[in-house]
Amino acid sequence: MVVVAAAGGTGTVGRNIAEALIAQANHEVIIQSRTANPLKAKEIGVRAIGTDYKEVSATRKILEDNNVHTVISALIRMPGTAGPFGTESHPSRRRL
Ligand SMILES: NC(=O)c1ccc[n+]([C@@H]2O[C@H](COP(=O)([O-])OP(=O)(O)OC[C@H]3O[C@@H](n4cnc5c(N)ncnc54)[C@H](OP(=O)(O)O)[C@@H]3O)[C@@H](O)[C@H]2O)c1
């Protein structure tokens, strides 16, 4: 059974994705959150792993340590706050 991580799995979209995967019972599902959130994790029924997405090496290690095969990102960036890449306007996200 491969491990699938839902980044932003505490949110509306991420939680739906995590729950759909759990219902399929074909994958081991974990959620990634900026803060390990035991209550949410218990509610959803999976492990929640605290992840600081700005720390690339640490994030990679978390994925490796948990044997994650696939990450599904359902992160959001709120206006006026830094996004998951730590910048207000990441170059890859600029619209032409
Ligand atoms: N909701 C919809 O109907 C809908 C429809 C179409 C597309 N979308 C897109 O789907 C994505 C998720 O939407 P959503 O409604 O599920 O959002 P949401 O409920 O706000 O959840 C997104 C998750 O992202 C994490 N997050 C928030 N701010 C962050 C930041 N600055 N850096 C890193 N992580 C952050 C939070 O998790 P933690 O606090 O646990 O880290 C949060 O639970 C967005 O890109 C949105 O545009 C949503």
Automatic annotation (TrEMBL):
Give the stretches traversing the membrane: none
Question: Which InterPro entries does this chain map to?
Answer: NAD(P)-bd_dom, NAD(P)-bd_dom_sf
Annotated ranges, domain NAD(P)-binding? 8-80
Q: This chain belongs to which protein, by name? A: NAD(P)-binding domain-containing protein
